[in-house]
Amino acid sequence: MTFSEMLNIGLMQGFAGLSLFSVLLLMGLGLAIIFGQMGVINMAHGEFMTIGAYTIYFVSHLAESYAPKLVAAYFPVAIVAAFGFAFAAGWAVEWLFIRHLYRRPLDTLLATWGLSLGMQQIFRSAFGAKEVSPTLPDWLMGSWAPSAGLDIPINGLFVMALTLVVTGGVLLALYRSRWGLRVRATVANRVMANATGINTRQTDRLTFAIGCGIAGVAGAAFTTIGSTGPTSGSLYIVDAFLVVTFGGAASLLGTVVSAFGIAQTQSIAEFFITGSMAKVLTLSLIVLILMIRPQGLFAAKVRR
């Protein structure tokens, strides 16, 4: 094998890691907002990702059945719908369950774990136990070949672009919007935030819903690289918590850095060893680093 071939293989493997990085980052962003900013352990976060994925499939099915000419243009609209459905579900869950469980982390963990099991059963009843895949538009198919022997999937490029847009939007909203100001004030000092007229309960509900909506966008991105089943989201929940914990709770920059590191380590390791061993290697490295730096890569003050 020539050096050029090895280089191309390494680049394609690294790009595969970037596709995984995109999904992990979108999942981690939503979880960082909920877990890092609000201190809520949401074990059902993966199911909100599944809501987004099934939304893409459902809109794809509608377009194929009733408006075949719109199949080429439905995907961006479906992404917005995925955010909207996951946002609405998150708003309802916060109002029904989460608002009663603040400052009770164990109860929150158990309640959201039970919620995740219930949502998985709803998915099975509505869509069946088999995995499904949407019909992707033609412009998402194929690959881009910048040089001979190097093929980069177009859907991977789209997912990366979507991730950049969502990440930039979250950072802009958190530091340049009234919602972001209220979130940061509530995290810093809830009592003082209430005293200044900020409705912290409404801020909590909106923040939780936005985090779930971002998970829905992660589900939309996931449909371009994998099929969707009732338990698809739960397969990513552990990795998403690793991303947030390793990067540092409440640190969005840490979420970005840790998602990139975890995805690239796992993807490159899978080229040399099996997938399960690659996960073991990645987890072992994270544990070693957290033993040295328990607060994560980027420490930040979190709500007590």
Q: Can you describe this structure?
A:
- By secondary structure, this protein is mainly α.
- It has a domain at 24-133 and 153-236.
- Helices cover 72% and strands 3% of the residues.
- It has helices at 3-38, 45-66, 74-96, 105-127, 154-176, 178-188, 190-195, 200-222, 234-247, 252-272, 275-292, and strands at residues 143-147, 150-153.
- The protein has a two-stranded antiparallel ribbon with strand order 1-2.
- Strand 1 (143-147) and strand 2 form a beta hairpin.
- Helix 5 packs antiparallel against helix 8 (200-222).
- The mean pLDDT is 84.
How would you describe this structure in keywords?
304 residues; mainly alpha; two-stranded antiparallel sheet; 11 helices; globular
